[in-house]
Amino acid sequence: MKKRGFLSMQGLDRDQIWDIFEKAKTFKEKGPAKSLQDKTIVLVFEKASTRTRLSFETGISRLGGHPIVLTPGSSQMSRGEPLKDTARILSLYCSGIVMRTFEHERIEEMASWAEIPVINALTDLVHPCQVISDCFTLSERFGSIKNKKIAWIGDGNNMANSWINAAVLFGFDLDIACPKGYEPDRMTLDRAINKGLKIRILDDPIEAARNAICVNTDVWASMGQEDEHALRAGIFSPFQVNEGVMEAADDCAVFMHCLPAHRGQEVTQQVLEGEQSIIWEQAKNRLYVQEAIMDILFSE
Length: 300
Description:
By secondary structure, the protein is α/β, with parallel strands linked by helices. The chain is 43% helix and 14% strand. The chain has helices spanning 14-30, 51-62, 83-93, 104-113, 128-142, 158-170, 186-194, 205-209, 229-236, 243-248, 269-272, 279-298; strands at residues 5-6, 40-45, 66-70, 96-100, 118-120, 149-153, 173-177, 199-202, 214-217, 254-257. Strand 7, helix 7 and strand 8 form a beta-alpha-beta unit. Helix 1 (14-30) packs across helix 12. It is globular, with a radius of gyration of 19 Å. The two termini are 13 Å apart.
């Protein structure tokens, strides 16, 4: 994990997860140590962000560090400076890089040229900080989530891919309900299935949610897919998380959404604001888990 940073959950083992969770729990209860004192962390955000940017910037400050944000128009990358040159420059000035970008290959390239650790704050392939934080939230509520069932309903996007990777790491069962042609990344899915994980791709959201302790969803059109919104709305409408879907889940089931949410589309207002929804707890825990990851990667 330390050599290149945290690009995906595939690079973690259970001992590292335990370390992250223990630190996150401590930081949540007592506040973080000033492990990034006098360190500068650069956030390279090529995609818009609210929760991810705020939680990382706040976490860096709480750890004693200084965050600098580079957006597309605020650096020479917008004028075509090669990513490998940017990575080497950032390595001269900073102690760590947090990157939010489009193609996963971009963050792989950044990490291959950087001399400092890189954290993946979202790519089109995976969103590991979100899902590891979501698993922390579930573990607070349910204890071990091994052999429990989790449901993902909607687009087979970077969040769905990350839940597949999490299933490998945590050992839970995963049902994914999505329209045909919008399945998760095939390589990510095959890797998990070949490890003996119980992961099903279904076309029925009720069946996917049946007996699950957690029902997850996300927007139907992710960043960069805005021109497909009308098309996707028609295709995904049978995959809305509503009260009927939640009734099929376990009696103690919770609802999760990485946000932002489109009420009345992928989830109803009643579910999003209902008693089973833990979206605000889920969002809050991003801060503590990311602080733990940065403490491990950037403090030395």
